[in-house]
Amino acid sequence: MSASCMSPARRPGRSLLAAGTLVCGALTLAVSVVDPLGAQQPERRTLQGERVAIYNLVGALRAEPTTGSEVVVEITRRGADADRIVIERLQRGGAEVLALAYPGDRIRYRGSGFRQNTAMSVREDGTFGGGMGGGGRRVRIGGDDGLDASADLRVFVPRGQRIALHLGLGNVTVANVNGDILVDVGAA
Predict the structure, then answer these.
(1) Which of 103, 140, 153, 161 has CB atoms 3.0–4.6 Å from 179's, for a disulfide?
(2) Whole-angstrom Cα distance, residue 46 to residue 70?
(3) Residue 31 banded pLDDT, cuts 50, 70, 90
(4) Where does residue 122 rank: exposed (0-12), middle (13-18), buried (19+ CB within 10 A)?
(5) DSSP label of 49
(6) What pLDDT is stored for residue 188 in this prediction?
(7) Are 151 and 85 in contact (CB under 8 A)?
(8) CB of 150 within 8 A of CB of 61?
(9) pLDDT in tens, 80-99
């Protein structure tokens, strides 16, 4: 979020520069302190290889093009329990996998006016569905109770990459990406 600052009207006995600095400082403080979703600073992970898979149970996922040969994932955790999300790097079936593992069997989600819910089987490493075998615990996502955590992912995909994007509940956007792309969602 950004804000622009305008100089206030000149007042007697006050420097225009000092008054403008005070207004900008107060506006910047107000903008940076108010974050109703509890977002943290983005974390970056890189993945390499011919095949890559990414798993996230809840949040927003946006795939965008990039140059180079690595898939770069920016992860922004949200919610009071966001620090409980474990980021796992795995090798499965010849693919490099990044999976976000959420503890428990209930996860609340109220992001972006999204009012659906879903239930799915989730393995302990955070993977689900996607032809990687069954098993796991049953997890309900959505509603107003349970773990208060989600993660928004911004995935930078190189040209020609084979990538599978798995999301349990949330919003998915794939824009101008050139590659072999699978998008697997529970409710999105």
Answers:
(1) 161
(2) 6
(3) very low
(4) buried
(5) S
(6) 80
(7) yes
(8) no
(9) 999 999 999 999 889 999 99
